[in-house]
Amino acid sequence: xxxxxxxxxxxxxxxxxxxxxxxxxxxxxxxxxxxxxxxxxxxxxxxxxxxxxxxxxxxxxxxxxxxxxxxxxxxxxxxxxxxxxxxxxxxxxxxxxxxxxxxxxxxxxxxxxxxxxxxxxxxxxxxxxxxxxxxxxxxxxxxxxxxxxxxxxxxx
Length: 156
What we know:
- The chain is mainly α.
- It is built from nine helices and three strands.
């Protein structure tokens, strides 16, 4: 699936986050940047290769920290008015607010994004998704902080 029009089709046919039980994993090199393993895209997990996609699709959620990380983003979308659009607007907003921190920390805009901070914090906790079944709210704690305060947390 390396066609950008297929990505547009995924966007236009996306289901509300609360209606997604498990996200299928797809191969897509068009959107996924170098240095990133995966991304959540309107109810799908996007990876670099078909081999990765096949392996992750066969692996239960409980045994994959990568799938758990991306599923936390699904729960976050549920917590942002159950809307992919609201989730991505907020994601971009927090990313842009943290951009000046890139001077102090490599890729800070990504790592200091409250959504990513929550996902990284809990991606190795097999029980976290059950605890936030109706929407992950942990990102809100980080969102209340300035990006420079978040940077201090990540260094400790």
